[in-house]
Design goal:
Elements (H helix, E strand, L loop, with lengths): L25 E2 L1 H11 L4 H9 L30 H10 L6 H6 L2 H5 L3 H6 L7 E3 L7 E2 L2 H8 L10 E5 L5 H14 L4 E3 L6 H11 L8 H4 L4 E5 L3 H4 L1 H12 L4 E5 L5 H4 E3 L4 H5 L3 E2 L3 E3 L6 H14 L5 H7 E2 L1 H10 L2 H8 L3 H13 L3 E5 L1 H4 L4 H14 L9 E4 L6 H6 L9 H11 L11 H9 L5 E5 L3 H4 L3 H8 L4 E6 L4 H5 L5 E6 L10 E4 L4 E5 L14 H13 L12 H11 L9 H4 L3 E2 L17 E2 L25 E8 L4 E2 L2 E2 L14 E4 L1 H6 L7 E5 L4 E9 L6 E5 L23 E7 L3
Parallel strand pairs: 1-8, 4-5, 4-14, 6-7, 6-12, 7-10, 11-20, 12-13, 14-15, 15-16, 21-27, 24-26
Antiparallel strand pairs: 2-3, 2-16, 8-9, 17-18, 18-19, 21-28, 22-23, 24-27, 25-26, 25-28
Bound molecules: ligand MGD (2 copies), iron/sulfur cluster (SF4) and molybdenum atom (MO).
The site of one ligand MGD has 33 residues, from helix 11, helix 20, strand 21 and strand 22.
Amino acid sequence: MSGNPESNLQPIPPFHDKNEDTPDIGGGLPIIQYWAKHTLSPEGPKLWKTLLHHSACLSCSWGTGGQKGGFTNEDGEKLQRCMKSVEAISAEIKPAVPPEVFEQRSIRELQQLTSREADRLGRLSFPMILRSGRDHYERISWSEVYEMIVEEFRKAPERVASYSSGRSSNEAAFLLQLMMRSLGSNNLADCSDLCHSPSTFALQKMLGTRTSIVSLESLKKADCVVLAGANSAYNHPRLMNELIKLRDERGGKVIVINPMMETGLVKFGSPAFPIKSLIPGSDISSLYLQPIPGSDVALFTGIQKALIEKGLSKIDFLQAYTENWEAVVETARSTPWAILSETCGVSQTEIEAAAEIIGSAKGVVFGWAMGITQHDNGVDNVFSIINTALISGNIGREGAGVMPVRGHSNVQGFGSMGVTTQELKKGLQTALERLLGRPLNDVKGYDTRALIEAADKEKVDTLICLGGNLYGANPDSAQAKRALSKVSTIVYLSTKPNIGHFNGLAKHTTIILPVLNRFENPYKTTTESGSNFVRLSDEGTTHLKHGDLRPEVEFLTELAHRIHGEYPVDWRKLRDPKFIRHLIAETVPGFEKMATIDETQEEFTIGGRIVMEPKFSTPSGKAVMFVPPLPTLTLPDAQSFDAPDAIRGVVVALMTGRSYAQHNTVVYQVEDKYRGMPHRNCILMHRSDAEQAGLSEHQRVTVQGNVGKLENVEVIYGAVRPGAALMFYPEVNVIFSAKIEHRSGTPAFKRVPVLVYASAK
Ligand SMILES: Nc1nc2c(c(=O)[nH]1)N[C@H]1C(S)=C(S)[C@@H](COP(=O)(O)OP(=O)(O)OC[C@H]3O[C@@H](n4cnc5c(=O)[nH]c(N)nc54)[C@H](O)[C@@H]3O)O[C@H]1N2
Ligand SMILES: Nc1nc2c(c(=O)[nH]1)N[C@H]1C(S)=C(S)[C@@H](COP(=O)(O)OP(=O)(O)OC[C@H]3O[C@@H](n4cnc5c(=O)[nH]c(N)nc54)[C@H](O)[C@@H]3O)O[C@H]1N2
Ligand code: SF4
Ligand SMILES: [Mo]
């Protein structure tokens, strides 16, 4: 193990026997090699042009780029582009898919493509249609598209739905929800339903807000960060720089909570510090806790208990600024240590060490991602984190707070613009009702899972997908395919082909519309970062000179005009997103500065989001605490799987997520070198689990879930706790139908019971 015992409090982490073939640090030289390979390749000049363009990074929600130049963060710090940004850009600057591909390859052939092969075809550059009974996608004109689909949107509003993914702009998001709500449909499913919806729900209930309450500036003042269920070395690389600075420059501490010991969260080599960090690597975790997947409530309750027992809890703070704290404190106090430790699989000593660090820090920021939210008790997990922040007095001041580490680069903006099936914030609802001249329909719309279920019951006629890959992102791929095949018309607005375009086919008409991304759009657009900062992306041009692509906003305004005429706005005027920005400024509280952003070019922090004093937008002005129940975590026995009974397999809790080089359902490279997984069809597991089932490293096995199995999967030993294992989505989505978190609709992607056994010879 690479941890340095002097600076890492936990000298011998429990489940550390990682694969010998893996590097000792995350990041490091391979990042530079990747940069060099791409920037020196024939695509290099195009890549540099885009990197230097004033636009927000396409990839993650950390939100680099914008008006101060492509490399700058909101604090004006330079050199803030990571390799993930290059990865995303180089996918977008690929040449167009040659028309022959669609002329020659039948839909059956296209269905054989892997995610990576589909993406590699190139950029989509002309509208296409797959008509009922045909085998091939055919070219179609934009005007034919409008004529064909406008009637489909006039169906009963509850039978019309949308799905969206957070790569598009705020302007497109605002239009989408206005068009749908003008129809009377609340069916605004969004990728956040599969992602941070539990965070939104819990933050709203407890603090009266829905997003991070920490600004980047404030994060820079923290002397402790707790990072739970987030593999930021892969998915938010610039956050790693903040952790390096916290440890190196401020002598602070980082507590990582993750069943898998991710190399980059132990030590990370960052190009931002070429001499002191890149090659030797910088220490990240001061303490690394490896709980049982899905048990974070027990671990955080344990931290609360230790804070209370050691006199490190801030009872005065709780009394003054919170409600229902007594029940939370009493629960932590009275739950026996044995139960907490047994539930989460982390010892009392380790939990107490975490509490000591938190209790003695000046300011703690609690960050989390999918390891916390993608569970059937995801909301409870978030409750328990916010409870811990409150009990330790770490909310409502500089250098402290709670920070969901968000997903797509503009997923948060979609929520702010009203693309949600959760209850709208009052201010936004009132403003929309004023605009529409009537109350909003109060029927709860379909979130992503409800949409698939409704489609499967033939309750959806028309579906518009603004980006994303609805098919690939859902669990139980066979169900997703079947459900979508019962929808009469599906319209996909996309930049790149993906497996959803070939497998998520409608009953009658499937249309793919090629759109311009944010750095090639002829108009300026905006996005919102995970720390509530609004970014302005400049106009650009596309390299697809012979293509017939449109901005998303142009398509949506024209469609809305044809459906609604001039109700409730002059849609065609909104073709220039500047006018949408005016409408957003009038409608969405906190976005007032959008009205002048075109004149001032001034990017801004959304009003009312960053919480610097312990006053909350709840009815009482106090934070409201809840007691989340401890989870009961059992795994089914091997016999309950539909597998031959003689087999001697092992049942594990499978965490499904991202490899090093993929962006959600889009795979860029097959190997994950930091976890020692040479290709996508691997299962990373603890040596002891494999041996118990008579398996050995590199053996090919069957991984069986509740709705399917994957064959010929290679066993890779890794630093994951026994009982847990890890595989990659979207491929793994064929084998399970996930449990659903009942308050947020989010699937339990991180605790999938599977049986692993030797494949029949
Ligand atoms: N390069 C790149 N960047 C991305 C993305 C991408 O695909 N590629 N995707 C974007 C999107 S949409 C999102 S949502 C984010 C995702 O960012 P992350 O949430 O960091 O990504 P995941 O791979 O889903 O895994 C999260 C971690 O959770 C851990 N984990 C699993 N179960 C548990 C548990 O029960 N408890 C705890 N404490 N930890 C657990 C896993 O071991 C893993 O390390 O990244 C965004 N950024
Ligand atoms: N098993 C498992 N499943 C998961 C997860 C998991 O951890 N495990 N994570 C879930 C999470 S957190 C998420 S967010 C979802 C991701 O779900 P989605 O957001 O639905 O999927 P993506 O793969 O990000 O979508 C990629 C596609 O978006 C399109 N696109 C890219 N840029 C643009 C643009 O600017 N405009 C438009 N219109 N289209 C664009 C391209 O065509 C590209 O192929 O997956 C979820 N599914
Ligand atoms: S951290 Fe995220 S936003 Fe920043 S450059 Fe990397 S991928 Fe882009
Ligand atoms: Mo996500």
